[in-house]
C-alpha cells in the first residue's frame, strides 16, 4: 500500500518544525528573548535494573525470554506486551520449543517493498508446500530454524486494542506451529473451505514433484472475520491466516460465536480448552435476526457505541443481505431532536456499513444536517471508506493471489480483490480485464477478455474460455504471460479508476492434474535436527 504518515513520523516532523522555528526566530534580532533551557527526559538511575526485572517477570509468568536483535526492548513495551499476554489462555503460554520473543526494527530478508516498515510482527520458521510424487505425499517442509516470534517497530505505534489483537493473532500462529499445524488438519480445512491446488513448474515432467498451495472457495462468502486494520480478503489468503484471525476473533469479537459457529466450537474445544471470553448466548435467533434487533435497539436508545459494534461486526465478513437490512434500519431512524454531535455519530455508524445506501445516507447528513466531512474523516473507518481512501489507496492496488488452473475440462483464473466490498459501498461496478501472450513471442496477445461485477466477497473465479473475445487453445507446456487488472466505474458519474496491472507466468501441460484425485491432508515435515527431539 502507498506509504502514509505514521504517528511517529508526524511527531518527528512536528519536532523538526519547532527546532527550525526556534533558530529562525532567534535570527530576527538581538532583542528576541532567549528561551528557557528545558531539561531532556532522563531515565531513572535504576532503569537498567527495572528493565531486567520486567524481563525476568515476563519470562516467569509466560515462559518466553524477551531477546534483543537490532532493537532492544523498552520497559514500557514489555508492560504493554504483558497486558496483552495476560489475556491469553494457559495453552498459549510456555509453548514447547518456543523460547524467545525477539525485538526487531522491521522485518528482514523478505521482499515486501515499501510496506516492510508497516509489518507489525512475524512468526517463524516459514515453510514450503511440496508434493512428492514418490509415495504421493503432500508435504509441508519447515525451514531449519527454531520457532520464534518477532515484534517490529510498527506494532508499538498501534493503539492498545489493535496492539492486543495483533499480538493474539501472532500467538495464534505460534500455537498453530507448535501444535503441528492444526490449520492444515482435515477438520480445519473442512471448516474453512480451503482445498489443495497443484502448481506445475515451467519445466514440468509427468510423474515429477511440484509445489502446491491451498485456495479458498469463491462461492463461500464467510471466512474468518478480519480486524479493522486488515483488508477484507486477509483470511482467504491461506488456512494459517484464517486460523490466526479466528483465534483473535475468539478473544476480541463478542459476536464470533454467532457469525462463525463452527470455527468457534472448534477453537473452544481444541485450542481454548473450554475458556470463553464472552457469555454464551443461548438465544435461538440467527445472527442476522440478532444483529438487526440489537442495531435497532441501539439506535432507538441513542447508544451509538453499541450500534457501531454491531455494524463493525457485520462488516467483518461478506453478508450483503445483512448490510442492506442494517442500512435500511439506519435510514429509518428518527433524526428529530438530534444535535450535530448525534448526527456525526450516525455518520460514523454508516461508515461501517457497505451497502451503497449507507454512503447516500452519509452524504445527506453532510448536505442537509451540516455534518462536516472533515469531522467524519477523523474517524479511521470513515477515512478508509471515504473517497480518497478508496480512489487513491484501495482501488489502485493490484489484484492478489492469481492462479490459473483447469477443472472439469474448463480453464479458470482465480484471484483476490481486496477492494471489492468497498467498491460496492462506493457504488462502483468493477470490470476485470485479462489478456494472455506467449513468453518471448513478438506477435503479442493471443487471447483477452473481461467480466463485470457489482458486488462480491473479494474472491473471484473467471471462466477464461467463456469470457474470451475469441476461441483459443493453449500450446501444451509453452510458457504463458497472463496479465490482469480491475477497472472501477462509478454507477452515477461514470468516473473510472484502474488498478495496477498484475501478472503471472505459467505453463499448462495437457496431462497435468490441478487437484488431487482423492481427499488429501498435508503432512508436516520437520527438519532432521527437530526430528531427533521428538517432533
Query: What would CATH call the class of the largest domain?
Result: Alpha Beta
CA(first)-CA(last) distance: 39 Å
Number of beta strands: 17
* Low-pLDDT segments, ≥5 res: 1-34
Helix content: 25-40%
What does this protein structure show overall?
The protein has a 5-stranded mixed β-sheet with strand order 7-8-4-5-17, with no helix packed on it. It is of the alpha+beta class. The longest helix has 20 residues, at 7-26. Strand 11 and strand 12 form a beta hairpin. It contains 19 helices and 17 strands. 37% of the residues lie in helices and 19% in strands. The chain is globular, with a radius of gyration of 26 Å. It has 3 domains: 47-253 and 260-266, 3-Layer(aba) Sandwich (Collagenase (Catalytic Domain)); 287-385; 394-506, Immunoglobulin-like. Helix 9 packs antiparallel against helix 10 (304-314). The protein has helices at 7-26, 47-62, 75-85, 160-178, 186-192, 239-252, 256-259, 261-270, 287-300, 304-314, 320-332, 340-351, 356-368, 373-377, 380-385, 387-394, 420-425, 464-467, 528-531; strands at 65-68, 100-103, 121-124, 127-132, 137-142, 148-151, 195-199, 210-215, 400-407, 410-416, 428-438, 445-453, 459-463, 480-490, 496-498, 502-506, 523-525.
Amino acid at each position: 500500500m502507498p506509504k502514509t504518515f505514521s504517528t511517529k513520523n508526524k511527531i518527528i516532523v512536528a519536532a523538526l518544525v519547532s527546532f527550525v522555528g526556534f533558530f529562525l526566530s532567534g535570527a530576527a534580532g538581538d532583542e528576541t528573548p532567549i528561551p528557557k533551557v528545558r531539561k531532556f527526559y532522563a531515565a531513572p538511575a535504576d532503569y537498567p535494573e527495572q528493565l531486567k526485572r520486567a524481563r525476568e517477570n515476563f519470562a516467569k509468568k509466560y515462559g518466553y525470554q524477551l531477546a534483543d536483535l537490532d532493537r532492544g526492548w523498552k520497559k514500557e513495551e514489555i508492560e504493554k506486551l504483558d497486558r496483552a499476554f495476560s489475556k491469553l489462555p494457559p495453552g498459549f503460554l510456555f509453548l514447547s520449543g518456543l523460547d524467545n520473543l525477539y525485538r526487531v526494527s522491521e522485518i528482514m530478508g523478505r521482499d515486501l517493498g515499501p510496506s516492510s516498515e508497516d509489518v507489525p510482527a512475524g512468526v517463524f520458521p516459514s515453510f514450503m508446500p511440496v508434493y512428492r510424487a514418490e509415495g504421493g505425499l503432500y508435504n509441508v517442509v519447515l525451514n531449519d530454524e527454531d520457532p520464534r516470534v518477532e515484534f517490529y517497530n510498527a506494532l508499538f505505534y498501534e493503539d492498545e486494542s489493535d496492539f492486543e489483537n495483533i499480538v493474539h493473532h501472532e500467538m495464534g500462529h505460534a500455537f498453530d506451529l507448535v501444535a503441528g499445524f492444526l490449520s492444515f488438519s482435515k477438520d480445519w480445512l473442512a471448516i474453512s473451505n480451503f482445498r489443495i491446488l497443484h502448481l506445475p513448474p515451467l519445466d514440468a515432467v509427468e510423474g515429477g514433484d511440484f509445489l502446491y498451495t491451498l485456495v479458498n472457495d469463491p462461492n463461500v462468502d464467510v471466512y474468518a472475520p478480519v480486524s479493522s486494520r486488515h483488508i477484507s480478503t486477509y483470511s482467504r489468503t491461506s488456512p494459517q491466516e484464517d486460523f490466526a484471525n479466528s483465534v483473535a476473533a475468539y478473544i476480541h469479537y463478542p459476536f464470533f460465536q454467532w457469525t462463525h459457529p463452527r470455527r468457534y466450537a472448534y477453537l473452544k474445544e481444541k485450542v481454548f480448552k473450554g475458556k470463553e471470553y464472552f457469555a454464551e448466548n443461548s438465544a435461538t435467533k440467527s445472527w442476522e435476526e440478532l444483529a438487526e434487533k440489537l442495531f435497532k435497539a441501539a439506535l432507538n436508545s441513542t447508544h451509538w457505541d453499541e450500534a457501531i459494534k454491531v455494524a463493525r461486526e457485520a462488516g467483518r465478513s461478506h453478508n450483503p443481505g445483512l448490510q442492506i437490512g442494517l442500512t435500511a434500519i439506519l435510514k429509518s431512524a428518527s433524526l428529530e431532536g438530534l444535535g450535530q454531535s448525534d448526527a456525526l455519530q450516525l455518520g460514523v455508524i454508516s461508515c461501517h456499513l457497505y451497502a451503497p445506501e449507507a454512503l447516500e445516507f452519509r452524504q445527506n447528513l453532510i448536505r442537509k444536517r451540516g455534518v462536516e466531512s472533515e469531522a467524519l474523516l477523523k474517524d479511521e473507518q470513515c477515512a478508509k471508506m471515504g473517497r480518497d481512501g478508496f480512489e487513491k489507496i484501495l482501488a489502485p492496488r493490484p489484484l492478489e493471489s492469481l492462479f490459473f488452473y483447469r477443472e472439469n475440462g474448463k480453464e479458470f483464473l482465480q484471484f483476490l480483490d481486496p477492494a471489492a466490498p468497498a467498491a460496492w459501498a462506493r457504488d462502483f461496478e468493477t470490470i476485470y480485464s485479462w489478456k494472455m501472450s506467449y513468453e518471448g513471442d513478438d506477435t503479442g496477445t493471443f487471447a483477452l477478455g473481461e467480466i463485470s461485477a457489482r458486488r462480491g466477497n473479494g474472491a473471484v473465479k473467471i471462466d477464461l474460455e467463456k469470457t474470451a473475445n475469441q476461441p483459443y487453445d493453449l500450446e501444451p507446456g509453452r510458457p504463458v504471460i497472463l496479465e490482469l487488472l480491475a477497472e472501477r466505474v462509478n454507477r452515477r458519474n461514470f468516473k473510472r479508476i484502474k488498478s495496477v496491472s498484475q501478472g503471472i507466468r505459467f505453463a499448462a501441460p495437457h496431462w497435468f492434474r490441478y487437484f488431487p484425485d482423492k481427499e488429501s491432508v498435508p503432512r508436516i515435515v520437520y527438519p532432521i535436527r527437530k526430528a531427533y527431539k521428538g517432533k
